[in-house]
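Hey,
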Amino acid sequence: MLVLDCSAAVNIARKTEEGMRLREIVDQDTSVISSRLLYPETVNTFWKYARAGEITPEEAIARAENAIGLVDEFHDMEGYYVEALNEACRLGHPAYDFFYLLLAKRTGATLLTCDRKLASLAEEIGVRCAS
């Protein structure tokens, strides 16, 4: 099982070199889960690309749908926020990333991310990571 974070989902949808490599990992796994946080993070990321003129609004929607469509099952966030905030304060990393990291930790899944700092934190706390 994989936990897909926004950085990985966006790179896969953008078909970057790193994204294509990650896509192979996704295609080999039986189940991809994510936090519901993936929706606003992904939409906001593609809005930034559209706003910068790198893609059209229609392309932004298509890529967001592609990224979100990689996920088989979404998990709610309410059971994670206290621990996410505690870990963010303790480790000095943005709290929203801990929703993905803690989901991987609690489910025994592998975290799929392009965020090098998050990957390092995952390894520090014993969460398998593919990046």
